Amino acid sequence: MSALVNEVARIISNEPIGPRLHLMVLESPTIAAKVTPGQFVHMKVPGAPDHILRRPFSIYSRNANEGSVEILYQEVGTLTRFMPSLKEGDAELIGPVGNTWTGARRYKDGSCTHALLVGGGVGAAPLFMLAEQLKEAGCPTDVVLGAQTKEALVCRARYEALFGCEPSCATDDGTYGRAGFCTSLVEERLSQGCLSDGKPYDYLAVCGPEPLMKIVAGMGAQAGVYTELSMEKRMACGIGACLSCVVDTTMGKKRSCVDGPIFKAEDIVWG
Asked: Which domains does the chain have, with CATH numbers?
């Protein structure tokens, strides 16, 4: 993990892009230059009433040349329901926090030849920089996205623009792609192989609700595919001191903030 910085970041824009979904762009040149796929920032939200603790947000994308980072967030609690009101001003970020996806490194050392990325809901965002990295490395990569509705598939267009083809999509209500959960698409892809050449996947990266990750991790294990998960947890300090973001693993309790958030699926002990 790279050394953490505490950076005052200017909010450039903060716009709604879907049902209770918003995209915030922040000017944060030091963090933008250092962040790697899978890492996140710990944000002190300006003016947030009755909210002292910082909140972790995954980095959706970054522009190192412009010194900016993007955060995709969903209104789920008091703080995130307050955040859409932020139109200008500064937020204080600690970052980049955590470890990184290993897919591109594995492709370069030959242990990964075909990758499958699975994003559920806003879990599609923490995978996007990994997708960029895999494409740049030349690794054949397929993407499966799931959301409750068509309007909630807010990352779909970016993945399509990156790879030049639409990701496989599923919606709970059947308004776009396959009706139902995206796990059926994952099962299909694992059984049929990579869309480009039909060869089996040997790297699987998953981010989304824990029930989804648990199911997909089991599919990966059954198929013999090396699988990584982003275990996102609520946390207080973000630097490993408070033990509020503990993940149960086969090696004991680990902290999502400094030992993760990326974990080998085989190491997770599910509740």
From this structure: 5-97 (2.40.30.10), 103-230 (3.40.50.80)
